[in-house]
Amino acid sequence: MKKVLLYIFIITPFLSSSQEELVLPKVKQNSIYLNSYISIESNNLNTNFLNSMLYGGFINDEMKDNWINSGDENNRLNAEFTNYLKYEFLNKDFNSFYFQFSDVNYVNCNFKDDLLKLSFNGNYDYQGDTLDFSETSIRIDRYQQYKLGYNFNIFKNNISWNIKTALSYLNGNHHMQLNIDKGSLYTSETGTSLDLNYHIKSMMTDTSNFSPFIGNGNGISMDLSLKITKETDIWEMKIRDLGYIKWKKNSITSSTDNNLTFSGLEIQDFNNLPEFNDSILDISFNQQTSSFRSFIPARITLSYNRILKHHLIKNICIATHSRWQPHHVTGGLNSDLINRGFKESGYINSLDINTLIDAKYLYSNVGIIRGGFTDKTNLHFNIRDKKGICTIGTYHLNELLKKDKSSASVYFSLTKRF
Hints:
The chain is mostly beta strands. The chain has one domain. It has 7 helices and 19 strands. Strands 1-2-3-5-6-8-9-13-14-15-16-17-18-19 form a 14-stranded antiparallel barrel. The chain is globular and about 80 Å long.
């Protein structure tokens, strides 16, 4: 993890974006933004686990037990690495146009402790038990995003209405997805028989070329936000990156659904071995090449911001964040798809309370957030110069102080106005 943190400094924090207008100097006509962001979050797994998985090393029984018993029964792991370059032009009516290019890498995993037990220990220690690894999901995405947006303002009755819209073209590089909707393994008390029940589906783009910018699919996404300002009160609703990628017809989809029983063999004479054809060997996948769609993570934020007349504390902001990303699409848009999208994103609705502090030579944003992929309370923090040129921060300041971290994030932003 130390090596990773040395290489990264990343994205302007969306959690504090609602305060930008309060602290930056008067915006000039042209602005260029360069942003980078990296985040690795887990509710249970820590840097010791990640380093062992990524870089190898000896894994002893104590480490296995600690990982299995480290917290929630359901394990969540989310990693994001994004860089983007943005150009914005402000016209004489204080409305703006912007173009943004982003390179996005995304990994999202959800699995139960029973899958760790089976992977680390096998089934020998669980005779007479049923290991349940249902609702397992793994998603890996890489794509580029070309976003064109427009921001405009309406002033009426001492109320400011700011509306932001954007449309994006998505160039999909690679997608890998594995879903185990149901899966269980029962081992008899004597260990002589196994019952395996599973429904597995996988989707993967063409594996013949893993070039970083190859086009294996394309799609669209949209942004929409509304901000209402009345004197010192600001209300805002934002939906960002609501969209999907349609992958090419040479993509591979596989599925299998079965109930299998393995009853073992009894051998009395090695010179006369019986014919063996147990049903456990009948595991097979229905595989075909076909096009499919996958959603990118959509971010939804509702916030209230109160501007304060204080020489040190400039505001108090309360926000709630959600994500929407269903595993797959069956039919059109309906209530089931909407509900599944929130659940299958792996993100727990979060509550964020933050404030902007005037530290004489710098501005600092400090806040606490509860929820997200970790469902823990985290402290987020950033600092930036008063000209708004450079910003650096993290969403997991409290984790940086721990020796064995379960989450880490860093972001970095440079801005040029002319």
